[in-house]
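so the lab meeting is tmrw and i was supposed to have these ready like two days ago... anyway. pasting both below. for each one the top line is the aa sequence and the line under it is the C-alpha cells. i havent really looked at them closely yet so no promises
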Amino acid sequence: MSRTPWLLSVAFVALVGPARAADPLPPTANLTPIFQQEHDRQVRAFNHKDLTGFLQHYTRDAHIELQPGKPMDLAGWRSFIAGILPDITGVVVHRHTVDHVDLRNGAPIAHIVEQEKYRIQDREGQFGKKGARHVLAADSTYEETWVHTPAGWRVQRMKIVSETMHIDGKTVSPPG
C-alpha cells in the first residue's frame, strides 16, 4: 500500500490549512435590526422618489411576487415602481416593520408589515376622473428572502402574503 496519497493530503493541508465550515448565520434576532435599518433606508429613498436608492434593497437577480404565481424580475419591479412614483404628491404614512425573522432552508426570511398612505394624482384616470386627487392607503404583509452580498444584506425574493388597498376609503384591488 502506497503512502503517496496520504502524504500529498498532509502536504496540501500544511500548505492551505484545514477546511473550514462556512461562517454560521448570526442568530435571527440579530438580523431583525439589520433588516429594519435597510427597510428604513428604502422607505426614505421611496419617499424622496429616489428609484436607484430604493432598488439598492434588492439583488440583481431578485424576484418580486405581488400576485400569486406572477413573479417579476428586477427590471419589471423597476418599471412598476417608476410608473407609480410620479403619481405620489405627498406621503402621509409609509412604514415598514420587520415583525420577525426565521430561517427556512438555511436562508433568513423576514416577515414585513407595511403601512402606506399617500396623496396621489390619478394621471391615468384609473380611479375615476383623469387627473383627480385621491388618498391611497394600503396595509400589506410580505416575506423576504435575504442573502448576504459584498454590498451587505439584500433581498433576493419578496412575496406578498396579504394586502388590502383603499382609495378614498373604498376598497380596491391591489396592482400587480
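ok protien two:
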Amino acid sequence: MKHRNVLDWLMQTGGPIIRYRTATELLEQDPGLTLSLRDDLLSSSLVEGWLEQVCYTPSRKTIHGAHSSTFENFAGKLYEFGLRAGEQILDERVSPYISWLANQLDKPNEGYFPVLHKTITACFLAMLGYEEKQVDKHIINRLDIVHDFAIKGDLGNVYILGKTHGSFPKALKGRLLINPELYPDDEFKLPWIYDVNAFLHSKAVMNNQIHKNKVEDIISFILTPEYQRLQIGYGVVRRPKDKYYVMGWSVHLPGYFSEPQEESIGYLLLLLDTFRRSTTARDHDWFQRRFEDPRQI
C-alpha cells in the first residue's frame, strides 16, 4: 500500500486517537480539521476515562507503580493519545508534577532512589512537550552522568558476587548484585528506559549539538552486545543497613539476539518509535531488521 493510501486508510478507518495523531503528526496541518478531530479525541470514552485517573498530589507513591492513577501510567497513556503541552486539560493535570519536580531538584537524595522518581517525572513531562527549566535541568544532569559511564565505564565491573554479603536475601537468588559504585548517592550511572525517552524527547537536549552527541554515544553503548547481555532489569541494589531491592527499567531490546517473543511486540514497537529519533539507532542492524519486520530473525 502506498504512503498516501496508508494515510487515507488511517483517516477513514481509525478511531478518534488514530485520526487525531495521523492528522497532527503525518499530514499537512489543516486547522479546521485538527480542531474537529481534537474535539472528537477529548470526548472519546477512552481519553475521558484516563483523564479521570489523574492524581493531583505528587509523591513517590503516585509517580511510580502499577496503578492507572500513577503519573507514569496516565501520562504515558495521554502521550500515546496525542495530547501535548498547551492543551489546557492536560496542563491542569500535570502542573502539580512540574511544581513537585522543581521542589525536589535541590533536595538531598533520601529514601528509595528519589533520582528514579525525578527521572520518571522529567521523562514524561518531556515526552508531553513541557520545556520548563526544571525538566531540562534534571534531564541534562542525568545525561552527563549516564554519558560519563557510557564512554568511560567498565561493563565488566557492573556486578559483584552477592554471596560475599551474608545478608543477601535468599528470595533474590539468581539475581545479580549491582556494584554500589554505580549508584553513589543514588545517582544511578546506567541508563534507565526513562532516561532514553527523556533524552530523545527533550528539545533542550536534541536541539543542542553537544548534548545530542552525548545521546548518540549513549545509544551506541546501549546497542552493544555487551550491554544487551547484562541481566534484564540490571539486578539488585544494596541500600543502607543491608537492605536489598530489585532494580529494573534497563534498556534491553526485544529481538536483539533472536526473534522477539510475541508478548514483547507491543513494547518493541514503542521502542522503535522512541529510537527512530537517534541517527545511531536508525543505522543499526537491530533497528533496521525490526523496523522492516518486528518478528524477523
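from a quick look at the 2nd one: The beta strands are 159-160, 177-178, 236-239, 243-246. Residues 1-43 form one domain. will dig more after coffe
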